[in-house]
Design goal:
eight-stranded parallel barrel; alpha/beta; binds ligand PBG; two-stranded antiparallel sheet; 38% helix; TIM Barrel
């Protein structure tokens, strides 16, 4: 044998030199949950070690994470049911606790990068991402609400808007609304290929945002489809997306790969709540090693072609680097 691939695996130094994909804190975005009030750190049973924080404690949590080297955060509001309505009015009310918290976070940590979802579901009494009318999610009447929400978030200081609703035409409408309001520097990371997945369960527990009727299959993508992701990506890029996201990550590594191969626009992936919760559950039973499974998952998402990864593992990964 004159070719023995094992020679390139014979020790750590050689293995690391020829390693093809790498993972660093610069690749990670940490999703955090905010609740109105003070002194709140609330457990989310299906999302171990992730909490609903009130702003005072969230600032401390972020400070600790910044010291660990996490620079980009995605913040989600857990809204009380009695404040939700059919048109998600609260989402763009400048006095709401979420927008005030965004302002506070950006004032306290000007160097931090903050991202936020734009979709109706956390504020909607129907639990859908778009407007529900006569049992149907209406596309075009949802768009002005998304635009108002995006402008309100930009005004509060959000750096990256994440349209996550999968309505057609939303990126273009949000881009023009932001530009008209003077927020030409606010980025858009579009949830480009967002699938109607079974892996969002713990997230919906965290926000109590599960749909009250039906499912999300008329707007989120069919899990069987890949070519359709190319249609979505082409539209989002043409409409002005700065980054295109695939969500979830693990069952869709082929989709991450095909977008990376076909677009020059940076590609990100959302390693979602159910993917994180599964590792916790299996590790708790002693069936997998937590840190090894985490590293393998995150590295596989990078290998598939993702530049950035939104992941609940961000803090554990950061901690594993200092241990
Ligand atoms: C809502 C939204 C969801 C997630 C992010 N934004 C859930 C959904 O579409 O029902 C899921 C994130 C996760 O599971 O970690 N627009």
């Amino acid at each position: 044998m004159n070719i023995r691939p094992r020679r390139n695996r014979k020790n750590v130094a050689i293995r690391e030199m020829v390693q093809e994909s790498r993972l660093g804190l610069e690749n990670l975005i940490f999703p955090v949950f905010l609740k109105d009030g003070a002194n709140i750190k609330e457990e989310i049973p299906s999302l171990p070690n992730i909490y609903r924080w009130s702003i005072d404690l969230l600032l401390k949590e972020i400070e600790g994470c910044m010291e660990l080297g996490i620079r980009i955060y995605d913040i989600f509001p857990a809204v009380e049911d009695h404040l939700k309505d059919q048109t998600a009015t609260m989402s763009y009310d400048p006095s709401n606790f979420y927008l005030k918290a965004i302002q506070k976070i950006k004032e306290t940590f000007p160097e931090l990068v903050l991202m936020s979802d734009v979709a109706l579901d956390p504020y909607s009494s129907d639990g859908h991402d778009g407007l529900l009318r006569n049992g149907k999610i209406v596309n075009d009447d949802t768009l002005p609400i998304l635009a108002k929400m995006a402008v309100a978030q930009a005004q509060a200081g959000i750096d990256i808007i994440g349209p996550s609703d999968m309505m057609d035409g939303r990126v273009g409408v949000i881009r023009s609304a932001l530009d008209e309001a003077g927020y030409t520097d606010t980025s858009i990371m579009s949830y480009t290929a967002k699938y109607a997945s079974a892996f969002y369960g713990p997230f919906r527990d965290a926000l109590n945002s599960a749909p009250k009727s039906g499912d999300k299959k008329t707007y989120q993508m069919n899990t069987a489809n890949k070519s359709e992701a190319l249609i979505e990506a082409k539209l989002d890029v043409e409409e002005g997306a700065d980054m295109i996201m695939v969500k979830p990550a693990l069952c869709y590594l082929d989709v991450i790969h095909v977008l990376k191969e076909n677009f020059a626009t940076p590609v990100t992936a959302y390693n979602v709540s159910g993917e994180y919760a599964m590792v916790h559950a299996a590790a708790q039973k002693g069936w997998v090693d937590y840190n090894a499974a985490m590293n393998e998952m995150l590295l596989s998402i990078r290998r598939a072609g993702a530049d950035g990864i939104l992941t609940y593992f961000a803090k554990d990964f950061a901690q594993s680097l200092v241990e």
